[in-house]
Amino acid sequence: MDLKVMNKISYGLFILTARDGTKDNGCVINTAMQVTANPNRIAIAVNKSNYTHDMILKTGEFNISILDESAKFGTFKNFGFKSGRDSDKMVEIKYNRSENGITYLTDECNAYVSAKVCSTVDLGSHTLFIADVTDGQILSSNPSATYAFYHSNIKPAASSAPKKGFICTICGYIYEGDTLPDDFICPICKHPASDFKPL
Amino acid sequence: MDLKVMNKISYGLFILTARDGTKDNGCVINTAMQVTANPNRIAIAVNKSNYTHDMILKTGEFNISILDESAKFGTFKNFGFKSGRDSDKMVEIKYNRSENGITYLTDECNAYVSAKVCSTVDLGSHTLFIADVTDGQILSSNPSATYAFYHSNIKPAASSAPKKGFICTICGYIYEGDTLPDDFICPICKHPASDFKPL
User: Fold this and answer.
1) Is B10 within 8 Å of chain A by CB?
2) Taking a C-beta distance cutoff of 8 angstroms, is the pair A180, A167 a contact?
3) What CATH number is associated with residue B12?
4) What is the ipTM score, two decimals?
């Protein structure tokens, strides 16, 4: 089958934040959805390689800040292109804390949701967290940024890229080389070789 | 908290179809996401009151047809505003069958995905189906319809509605009466009273 069909599924974009002791961290996810209204619960799928994943598994709490169409590529780079294990991602970010003590972004987001994990599903590479929504606030009337909007309007065009290599069509990461290994996984967004195209 | 924050989460829109023996059926869902790339798996949340839900629980297979921006309100009415228990929803719909024998829509959709359930999570009002993607095809280059697009461009405006009552801000269903019971559930889209507003 043509794996490009998977790109037709629409998603929002979110900064998923957690707090463990005095350590704040966050990452970018596109996989969040409300799964029941009574009780108000959401499900998020998070790659196990993310430090934020481990913090949520430990603490059972998180926020999602819902990115809107004013979101800058720098915010995606900050939260998606490095690990919170060896950096403080919050240094250059404007944020507040919700009642659970976890950060949420005050800029480039139109709302945040606080949630408390009620169950987890091990999906192999990812964990699905099912969580009660405990709090939330609308921050602006800007339209939410969809994944399609990110690709068309936020992600820089690849025109300045080097000539030999492959670009991840998901996040823009560039693999330099003549051949992309079949089992290559994007170090940034964890998508497989099938989501890369030659430069 | 302001429950309107939940409306800031972006979704696509899908016709979820199943087949039990010779009976074809389908319903509208907005809750579908890819949860892992290796293996290629999706998760969908489906209200238990939907006949399609019971068919998937029994057969373990389904398709999702990904609605694009050409989708008509009539298609939402056909799949969302009546039950397949006492009607044949496929009568006026253009469709083909994928390899699993299940229908997919050939019009108003830009792709379909076939999937086989590998696990279920009981969420109370809904079941979360986690499923292996087994097949799929791109049908058009039209942009996918998001939930926000549906609200702005597909759902009819409420201007011709009667003067007394409450409208479901999710699907447009109108409850006629002076008072909306607190525990009211929309008979069409199953959303709670908090998603209604006075006409």
Assistant:
1) yes
2) no
3) 2.30.110.10
4) 0.85
